[in-house]
């Protein structure tokens, strides 16, 4: 259905504003102490650091970084570190709030944290990235640690980044501390299956929501925006189940094949940048066109705020599953609700990442590696457990899938605050 009069976004919505609105919506359904809600509207602390970097040509540049700690009532702060030119303090706070809900909805014993450096990693050489990461680890050392705050990869960072971070931290501590970060390469304490996990959980949850609406995955068409770690693994998982993944994209554009792409043949954006839009497909589209394709399932798995007041009425998918963190603005969410389009929220759909991070942390503490089969089996169990809890709320209250997930998360966090009490 094309829009005649598209509503406009009231103003550019920051991640923290979206996160607060979502919190308030869930709170309206629960009998939670107003003081706890007010507390959860704010981060516990936000650290700002300056990272001096010597470039390869000998010049010096200063980079700004942040680490936001939102809430740790259920366990150490947990969340990624991103390298991106648009990183802001507010974005880190909003993303750290989402991590609190994500860990709670999965019932894993972590709180929410998030960090970032305002930098375009494409502008840095590999050795510059290494120096930046090591210096950042040193600047953040007072506020992170295996029992206090455990970073992980996010946009623009990867297992190698985590390896440098772990090494810098360990050298300063005088002992190897693999549990200080997750998402490391398996050879130094990383978990098998961690890199694929966020995309895999998007696939598992898509399979579950299709079953909920009595749809056969083998008869389903899917469009995936973003073919990086999350998008590519989700697309391949669903392709393997028999779905037709008709469109995928990278920053430069989308490729489209109405009969379904061979997702294993398309190289991911992380594997070889530029190879998605450069792939020999029957048709090419813009990213905006991909979002409004007439498909059964739309998976935005690239960046935040892509489904907005401007395009939500033009979305033709029957179901949206959020692969990225925060791809839907509050206004777009309302439009989808009015239009009866179910949106499965990021905090459950891509939670496989932090769930396998938790498995990794357990393996690091126990100094004992799990097999890939065990990781994937336990991930499946945890995803289904979370999905069941959300389904119970969805069915027993007249709410959206997002509200149902937030209700599950918020009741666990509120209960933990309640029993721990406030230190005078
Ligand atoms: N950055 C990922 C996320 O947004 C993973 C966080 C983690 O594993 O700690 O969920």
TrEMBL record:
Residues 191-421 form the Glutamate/phenylalanine/leucine/valine/L-tryptophan dehydrogenase C-terminal domain. InterPro entries: Aminoacid_DH-like_N_sf (IPR046346), Glu/Leu/Phe/Val/Trp_DH (IPR006095), Glu/Leu/Phe/Val/Trp_DH_C (IPR006096), Glu/Leu/Phe/Val/Trp_DH_dimer (IPR006097), Glu/Leu/Phe/Val_DH_AS (IPR033524), Glu_DH (IPR014362), GluDhGdhB (IPR054867), NAD(P)-bd_dom_sf (IPR036291). The active site is at 114 (proton donor). The record marks 154 as: Important for catalysis. One of its GO terms (molecular function) is oxidoreductase activity. It holds the Pfam family ELFV_dehydrog_N. SUPFAM superfamilies: Aminoacid dehydrogenase-like, N-terminal domain (SSF53223), NAD(P)-binding Rossmann-fold domains (SSF51735). Keywords: Oxidoreductase. Belongs to the Glu/Leu/Phe/Val dehydrogenases family. Homohexamer. PANTHER family: GLUTAMATE DEHYDROGENASE, GLUTAMATE DEHYDROGENASE 1, MITOCHONDRIAL. This is Glutamate dehydrogenase. It comes from Natribaculum luteum. The lineage of its organism: Archaea, Methanobacteriati, Methanobacteriota, Stenosarchaea group, Halobacteria.
């Amino acid at each position: 259905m094309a829009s005649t009069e598209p509503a406009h976004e009231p103003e550019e919505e920051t991640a923290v504003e979206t996160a607060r609105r979502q919190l308030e919506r869930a709170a309206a359904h629960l009998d939670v102490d107003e003081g706890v809600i007010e507390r959860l509207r704010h981060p516990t602390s936000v650290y700002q650091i300056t990272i001096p970097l010597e470039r390869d040509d000998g010049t010096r540049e200063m980079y700004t970084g942040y680490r936001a700690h939102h809430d740790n009532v259920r366990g150490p702060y947990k969340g990624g570190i991103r390298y991106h030119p648009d990183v802001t303090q507010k974005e880190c706070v909003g993303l750290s709030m989402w991590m609190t809900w994500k860990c709670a909805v999965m019932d894993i014993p972590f709180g929410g944290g998030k960090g970032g450096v305002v930098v375009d990693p494409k502008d840095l050489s590999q050795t510059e990235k290494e120096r930046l990461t090591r210096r950042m680890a040193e600047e953040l050392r007072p506020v992170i640690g295996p029992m206090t705050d455990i970073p992980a990869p996010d946009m623009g960072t990867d297992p190698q980044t985590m390896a440098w971070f772990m090494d810098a931290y360990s050298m300063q501590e005088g002992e190897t501390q693999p549990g200080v970060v997750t998402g490391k390469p398996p050879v130094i304490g990383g978990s098998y299956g961690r890199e694929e996990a966020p995309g895999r959980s998007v696939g598992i949850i898509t399979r579950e929501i299709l079953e909920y609406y009595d749809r056969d995955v083998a008869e389903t068409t899917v469009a995936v925006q973003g073919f990086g770690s999350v998008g590519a693994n989700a697309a391949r998982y669903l392709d393997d189940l028999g779905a037709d993944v008709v469109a995928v994209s990278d920053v430069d554009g989308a490729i489209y094949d109405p009969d379904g792409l061979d997702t294993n043949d398309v190289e991911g954006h992380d594997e070889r940048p530029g190879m998605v839009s450069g792939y020999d497909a029957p048709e090419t589209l813009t990213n905006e066109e991909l979002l409004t394709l007439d498909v059964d399932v739309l998976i935005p798995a690239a960046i935040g705020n892509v489904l907005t007041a401007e395009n939500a009425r033009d979305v033709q998918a029957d179901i949206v599953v959020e692969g990225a963190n925060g791809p839907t603005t509050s206004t777009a969410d309302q439009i989808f609700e009015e239009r009866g389009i179910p949106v499965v929220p990021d905090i459950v759909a891509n939670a496989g990442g932090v769930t396998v991070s938790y498995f990794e942390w357990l393996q690091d503490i126990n100094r004992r590696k799990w097999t890939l089969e065990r990781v994937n089996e336990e991930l499946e169990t945890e995803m289904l457990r979370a999905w069941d809890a959300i389904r119970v709320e969805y069915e027993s209250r007249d709410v959206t899938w997002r509200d149902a997930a937030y209700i599950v998360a918020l009741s666990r966090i509120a209960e933990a605050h309640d029993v721990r009490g406030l230190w005078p």
